[in-house]
Amino acid sequence: MRFERKRTRVGLVAAAALPLVASALALGTQSASADPSAGRQLLSGTKPQWATAQADKGATADSAKVTVRVYLAGKDAKGLAAYAKAVSDPNSSAYGHYLTAAQTQAAYGATKAQVAEVTAWLKSSGLKVTGANRHYLSVTGDVAAAEKAFGTQLHNYTKSGHTYRAPTGNATAPASLHGAVLTVTGLDTAPKKSSHDEALPPPDGVFKNAGPFSTYFGSNTDPKYPSAYGSKAPYAIQGYTGDQLRAAYGAGNYTGKGVTVAITDAYASPYIAQDAARYANDTGGQKYKKGQLSQVLPADYNSTVDCGAGGWYGEETLDVEAVHAVAPDADIVYVGGASCFDNDLLDALNKVVDNHLADIVSNSWGDVEANETPDIAAAYDQVFQQGAVEGIGFYFSSGDSGDNVASTGVKQADVPGNSPWATSVGGTSLAVGKNDKYQWETGWGTERAPLSADGKSWTGFPGPYTSGAGGGTSKYYDQPFYQRGVVPDSLALANGGTVKQRVEPDIAAVADPNTGFLVGQTQSYPDGSLQYSTYRIGGTSLAAPVIAGVQALAQQARHGIAIGFANPLIYDKYGTSAYHDVTDHPLGQGQGLAVVRVDYANAFDASEGTIVSLRTLGADASLHATVGYDDVTGVGTPAKGYVTSSLPPKHGR
What we know:
GO molecular function, one term: metal ion binding
Keywords: Calcium, Hydrolase, Metal-binding, Protease, Serine protease, Signal, Zymogen
Signal peptide: 1-34
Protein name: Subtilase family protein
Structural class: alpha+beta
């Protein structure tokens, strides 16, 4: 059995989530450092913050079983980070000089000698190496052997009413290995363990929108409802389609032809091919060409109950259909993880990099930063850096719970979008008017007020906060070079102190489920049947694949030359007409925005009645979309001209 952290789907308007902890990780740093006096290399961050003296319940039994991954640093970790930066920076002479996967492995990967030395050390400690690849060694054994190998004791600790194992101090590796070990994961067992299953469950229960709807923003207003902000609010749209999103974000005649977008999520919908084809046909979208949508799946799945496997089908469906809607000629490869836990998601990301399956990777999953530890963060950063030198960029949803105070009690950013090597995608409420004309956007943040019993007022107007685009200042990463001079000090220094830190998101697109995207999916109905139906959906799980699709258009405009890790280029265009500068009040200070939404009480039909509510837009917890860079929408959203604004490097791949 494996023990690791669980990741959740960001969108489908569920609260987002991903992780990180202890020591700060600046751009290009590792989680390991030397301790010559002890003859050991410190693997910092492997002791979790929750493993305190007060929570210590004593030593774990020596005979207890341990399963870990020992990640390999490669032969030049610092060189990898440096080249990843140079090859991604438009102002660098190395910009666009990407390496192939084989060249990356040869230049920076672990050598056979390093693997042999690490294996010999582990075996000499009494551990068994059960598997190995270019990234890590899979290792099993008992607690006594693990304590010997990693130079720390393992104790039992209480956390949130449960007992988990964790090291009493940071793990170490022999200095004689000369830094070959990047980190070790699995010494702590919070929060859950996984078990193996061979069969995937059916889809989650059905969800459908009730209506009435607007066909475009503001097209349908019912005068019988109370006013809000000085006027009658229109019905929420039925769900934007590809034509509307392409017009809003300046697609022009570009279609993503010749570009491949990868999507990673957990598990795989058994119905994705038929659902995607039917959705495109029914909504007037472009039909899929033979082989245009493909899947790379694991041999088996695990943790289907812990992860809610059926719920991930909707995530995959949204991601695939959104990318195709925005970039209808782009190839899409779905790379499924065996579970929603870090090790399996890292495996999916590594498949993309090792085989260069795509230049653009959309990822709609994550966690809050407090749940991350630097050992896992180091493993993610290494994948992102290897991708960067190959011309691969990773796009992550910024989260659906604003500053996360309402959901966790603590103001914090989301991961792994907090990594300075990933592109964090924030969210907006989008108004597309008649004839697909872009009207405005505001930062996604929703307050809900139900219609009163007598129908004459909105109860508790504007109502409590429900959800909104994630964003904020990382407590663990220093400010990356590309954010200097763009991100205000009020945000970069929001955690106190004098060291500026990484702020997310970097860029944004539509996410508000009240101005969301229409998807088509096979769902489980109460009578036990499986039926295809459409519904409107949102979350930054929508924003990420939309931006991935827009990047495919931009790469086509660059004559196919890869954009790679996009953040340096994204910030290089800051303040230009390439972006819509999104604010809380696009129609003027004090002018509120809202829509009327009608929902089925039972989520799928009118047999139990409907619920009418007013959804106020542009109210994202404590976060604010302001003029210039902000922690709701980053530099803004793609405007007309964005797609053609990225000149390719003089010497591409």
